[in-house]
Amino acid sequence: MQELLRPGLFRRGPGFYTVNLRPGEKVYGEDLVVEDGVEYRRIDPWRSKLGAFVAQGGRQWPYERVRSVLYLGGGHGTTVSHLSDILPRGTVHVVEKSPRAFGALLALSQRRENVLPVLADVQLPERYRADCGEVDHLYQDVSQRGQVEIFLENLRASLKPHGTGLLMLKTRSVTQTAPPRAVLKDATRHLQQEGLDLLETVDLAPFSRGHFALVLRAPG
User: Please, which residues have CB within 8 angstroms of residue 85's CB and are 6 or more apart in sequence?
Assistant: First the structure.
């Protein structure tokens, strides 16, 4: 039986699932399960850092009162599709600069009306702020050196006061020389100096080694 773990998130045995917004359709080859007439999609923690966050025991769930998300670095839409499931009456604005990945996101948006892709550079939030407006939640998964500053710039541009954020920190993209925990410590200090509350930090290994999920809340 599916167990409701968090709003929009279910557990069945060792796996975690979302209710499929488009029954019968897979996005990336994930497992589908039907119970009592409802179809669920399994979140693969090896493919989705949100799935890894949940599988690694993340306690904070920042999607309970969220209606709008700004997603930075959407890739081909694996995690985006699960957020689309979790927020069926919400909106997921997805910024991606790779034309190839954007094509996949555009195709996804044609099947999921709550996914709105934007072809832009996440380092230039002024280019897409008018399209996305203010949002309740900021999700970032980018492989760039200045990940923390990108997160902060987008937060200043688009996140509502007291809004939440989920930053997937890729330490090896920041530097290859410092230990991952040292990079995490520097990033945490920088974020807290900007007034953010750090609600939780989760190590995503073994699913994504050298990656940490940081759940944050913006000041009022």
Answer: 8, 18, 19, 20, 21, 41
Q: Which residue has the higher pLDDT, 169 or 175?
A: 169
**CATH annotation of 44-217:** 3.40.50.150
pLDDT in tens, 104-160: 999 999 999 999 999 999 999 999 999 999 999 999 999 999 999 999 999 999 999
Identify the CA nearest to 177 among candidates 210, 215, 208.
Answer: 210
The DSSP secondary-structure symbol of 77 reads: S
With a cut of 90, say whether residue 82 has pLDDT above it: yes
Please state whether the peptide bond connecting residue 179 to the residue before it is cis, i.e. omega within 30 degrees of 0: no
Q: Which residues of 145-172 are buried (b: 16+ CB within 10 A; e: fewer)?
A: eebbebbbbbbebbbbeebbbbbbbbbe
Largest separation between any pair of C-alpha atoms in the chain = 52
Residue with tokens 């945490």: 188
